[in-house]
Design a protein that fits this description.
Helix 13 runs antiparallel to helix 16 and helix 22 packs antiparallel against helix 23. It is built from 23 helices and no strands. It is globular, with a radius of gyration of 27 Å. It is an all-alpha fold.
């Protein structure tokens, strides 16, 4: 568990460096807002004065860096509680990321209460995380989540879906972002120009279907469909980042010609792939050199190499060469996924450690996303904006559907797994939005395109992106199981079911015969046969539970009689 502990330590360090400054800013009075809001009434002016006095006392409170840990471990505690709840049979299908997002929204609402405002350390920790630099959010959370997701991909299946993923993450994202930008420009009454509209369109183009991918794996959907959705998500983040950078430069007043745009896009893509390939090859070499099964340090070294590979590929690409860190990290992870597994000393340990890291990351990401979205929904928007939010949600869903239908002839031609209309419906409904878009929306709100956007426009960008993320999680993710079952995506052919049932029955007979022979052997009298019988019955029950359409009692163990 050392790798998981290192992630926690990293999270604490990177956010604690902001604690003193952010907490002071969070408690400082907004004189301009107070002046505009309380200029009509003497009573309100007195209230404003008392509020400023209260904040003045808060400013003198000594802020400790360790206070940022409170929000961190609140998120981890909530995540652990949700996972514990899913152990109950009635709550087994509870969507982890959805619940964490809702808990974040509830926490944001609780932050408006007097009890939370006067909680001291808890409130300061909440404000520190919600005022975190959006670049820091991306650099802390994104490498681990991207790397862990890409590293677990079955590369043999991914090869068959590679061109489909590239088409969806390339032309598909460009078409989706452009269509969304045009809709925002001409349909919304907010007066956004084309560059601002395309900036928001590129933000909304990044999908994060972590909940849907987990659901499809759990329900046993086609690996090709799962990989297509998962691969598109991994790659379209990189495309969306490049599109966002170009559109945001235009929104900030930077003049770029066609040659400048082409040069930037090519260098961002190919430079990132080159950096990721170099780091991936270096990591494979280190893992091969540390594959001594007789040395107990080998699994620790290999796990740490993968963790370093995830963050170095992102940090070097984004921080040093200013190319796509997303594509660099995904490239390094895919190279490891293809060549690493036979070299590992402890494959199960590697999987478990990265599963812990991903669980921690998803818990904190969606908890933080929910709290940021909740703060945006409670402030700086009009009631009519909620209607426009619903309209944009419907529009981007239809745009994604039309894009998939339009590209389906090409997708079916280049892919080994043709996409049916049922697959397209699942892929459309599975286009959730997550932390990548929220981080860019926070960046727009804080920077305001170099002062070219008003504060109201910045708040509306965050409101729109956060609202879309919330709607896709609360509507799409929760209704996707019913959609998958209704369409019959996970139905197993009857011939395969019959084969699996026959194998299970033969295995039960063989094990039972071995147990009876063991029971007759005098040298095994010390074995507790009732305990052995109970354990075998439990094993049969678990096996039969995972066989689809098994009738009650049809495959009961011969021992049960």
């Amino acid at each position: 568990m050392r790798a998981a502990f290192s992630v926690l330590l990293l999270l604490a360090l990177v956010c604690s460096s902001q604690s003193a400054g952010d907490a002071t800013i969070a408690h400082a009075p907004d004189h301009s807002g107070d002046a505009g809001e309380h200029s009509n009434s003497p009573g309100k002016e007195q209230a404003a004065g008392s509020t400023e006095e209260h904040h003045g006392h808060a400013e003198h409170h000594e802020v400790h860096e360790y206070e940022s840990l409170v929000f961190l471990f609140c998120g981890l505690s909530f995540g652990t509680a949700v996972l514990f709840m899913t152990m109950h049979p009635w709550l087994h299908n509870l969507q982890f990321t959805v619940v964490m997002f809702v808990l974040g929204v509830v926490t944001a609402m609780a932050a408006e209460t007097e009890a939370m405002q006067s909680s001291g350390m808890l409130m300061r920790s909440f404000e520190t995380w919600n005022n975190m630099d959006p670049h820091l959010i991306l650099f802390v959370f994104l490498p681990a989540l991207l790397f862990g997701d890409a590293m677990s991909i079955d590369t043999h299946v991914a090869k068959r879906c590679a061109w489909q993923c590239l088409l969806l993450a390339g032309p598909g994202v460009i078409l989706g972002a452009g269509s969304t930008g045009l809709f925002l420009h001409y349909a919304l009454p907010w007066g956004w120009n084309l560059s601002t509209s395309f900036t928001v369109g590129s933000i909304l183009a990044a999908t994060d279907p972590v909940a849907v991918v987990g659901l499809l794996k759990q329900l046993g959907a086609s690996p090709s469909l799962t990989i297509a959705i998962q691969g598109e998500s991994l790659l379209n983040d990189g495309t969306a980042v490049v599109l966002f950078t170009v559109a945001y430069k235009f929104a900030s007043g930077v003049d770029m010609g066609v040659e400048d745009i082409a040069s930037f896009c090519l260098s961002a893509v190919f430079g990132a792939v080159l950096i990721g390939s170099v780091i991936g090859l270096g990591s494979i070499w280190l893992i091969r050199k540390s594959s001594d099964r007789l040395n107990h340090h080998s699994p620790i070294i290999q796990i740490c190499v993968t963790l370093c590979s995830a963050y170095w590929s992102f940090l070097i690409a984004e921080g040093v060469f200013h190319v796509s860190g997303v594509l660099s990290t995904v490239t390094a992870a895919l190279m490891l996924a293809h060549r690493m597994w036979p070299l590992l000393v402890a494959q199960e340990a590697m999987l478990e450690i990265w599963h812990v890291i991903e669980t921690i990351g998803n818990a904190l990401v969606f908890f933080l996303a929910g709290s940021m979205t909740g703060m945006t929904l409670l402030h700086s928007v009009y009631l009519s904006d909620y209607l426009w939010l619903l309209l944009v949600y419907i529009a981007i869903t239809l745009i994604r559907f039309v894009m998939l239908v339009g590209l389906s002839p090409i997708l079916n031609r280049v892919g080994h797994h043709p996409l049916s209309m049922k697959d397209i419906l699942v892929m459309t409904w599975g286009g959730l939005r997550g932390m990548v878009g929220l981080a860019f929306a926070i960046l727009v709100r804080s920077d305001l395109a170099g002062g070219r956007l008003s504060k109201e426009d910045g708040d509306r960008v965050l409101f729109l992106v956060g609202g879309i993320a919330g709607l896709t999680l609360l509507i799409n993710a929760l209704t996707c199981p019913a959609l998958v079952r209704t369409l019959g995506i996970t139905q197993v052919p009857e011939a395969r079911l019959a084969l699996v049932r026959n194998v299970a029955k033969q295995a039960e007979k063989h094990v039972e015969a071995s147990r009876l022979q063991l029971f007759k052997n005098d040298s095994t009298k010390a074995i507790s046969h009732p305990v052995l019988k109970y354990c075998m019955n439990q094993l049969y029950h678990e096996v039969n539970h995972h066989i689809a359409d098994t009738k009650k009692g049809e495959h009961g163990s011969p021992m049960a009689a």
